[in-house]
Write a structure and sequence with these properties.
With 470 residues, the protein is mainly alpha-helical. It has helices at 19-33, 68-81, 83-101, 104-115, 120-138, 148-157, 162-179, 187-193, 202-229, 237-241, 259-282, 286-303, 308-321, 323-341, 345-356, 361-378, 382-399, 404-416, 426-435, 439-467, and strands at 40-41, 44-47, 50-53, 59-60.
Length: 470
Amino acid sequence: MNKGDTRKEPAPGFRFPHTYAILFAVVIIAAALSYVIPAGEFERVEVGDRTEVVPGSYTNVEQSPVSFFELFKAIPTGLIDGASIIFYIFLVGGAFGIIRATGAIEAAIQKVMVAVKGREKLMIPVIMLVFSILGFTTGMSEEAIIFVPIGIVLATALGYDAIVGTAMVTLGAAAGFIGGMLNPFTVGIAQQIAELTIFSGWGFRTIVYLAVLGTGILYVMHYAKKVQKNPESSLVYEESKKGMVNFTDDVMDFEALRKRHIMILATFVLGIIINVYGIFQYGWFLTELSANFFLIGLIAGLVGGMRINDIFDAFIDGMKLVVYGAIIVGFARAIVVVLESGVIIDSVIHGMSSILDFLPPSITALGMLVIQVIINFFIPSGSGQAMTTMPIMTPIADLQNVSRQVAVLAYQYGDGITNTIIPTSASLMGVLAVSGIPYIKWVRFVWKVTVLWLVIAAAALVVATILGIS
């Protein structure tokens, strides 16, 4: 989930269009298409607790082009329609803001990092595991930036380089983000749109997560071993000699891990367990999950010895960090509002589905992955991408006899994997700005593991389709 637009300008005189600008441009295009694409609708029926499209029921209806003013009304309408998700993001972000303000997460991570210092064989897998857990529970993305200097200090102390230190933190968090078993900002939102039980399919996701994490660990360890054996083989050898990527031990200024930190972390873990139990036992949804996260934040603040005013200051600060990702949900929803107002969303679905009619379901799933990868370059916000694509991908999945869970898997892998390499990723560009690693050097390091992860994702989608994961 992107919480701020901290992207670097790729080149002097050029600035990549803001994600909001791209989304608004798509809203305009959608409105224009309402004058061109024939209006049409599918019949829909209630099947259990979800609404499904009836195959073969598409019919043309009277054209209903979107007017100039309706185009602008789509933005506030989109914000209203996406309110439950938007405020869910705000409340969860606020709760994490309180937990971060206690210093518990920083203290625990520093404790782990220092504990494995000097133990080369343990450092990389342990640190990547820790950050991956944060990735699949909190959707850690930009937050990883503050830990990169520590990772670099530890890595260089053991004879590695800045890329190893950066990769331990960022690729670890990315592996968990891709797995997404309990990620409220991506899988939770996508499954809500697809009318699936939130966090369902976690068993299959866990298997894929382990494959992604294991591959990432082996990849980083292989590179680290090569650098340790021959420092000149480092991709940032010249930058290191010039002092462009060096950090000193004064970056390790986080508070020591104390009993109250352990209690705060235990509260967080217990809260996650309660959420999962509530989802599967009582059918909890966004309202209940938001309430529980808010409660977790309050308890964490009180246990952390924070004053009530400080708790709510941290809560507001946490919400500020997720404004970018939260409001983008409304802009993304505005696209769907325009397509629905122009009565062409079913026409788009019908056209895309017709193209896929002659393909087996597994190939359809791979096509969804490719589409999500492409869209992620332009909309690198996980929640925004879910709101943009899932309203279209869900009925396409129904029409092509592909499980909705598979459609969500295609979304989360297409969203998560390429965040490690695309220049439009706010978290990636922020990490590289802090570490001093040139973007091209990072691409030279990360492209192979990115391809490996995409292969794993593609294989997972084929397997999920064959097994009928739902």
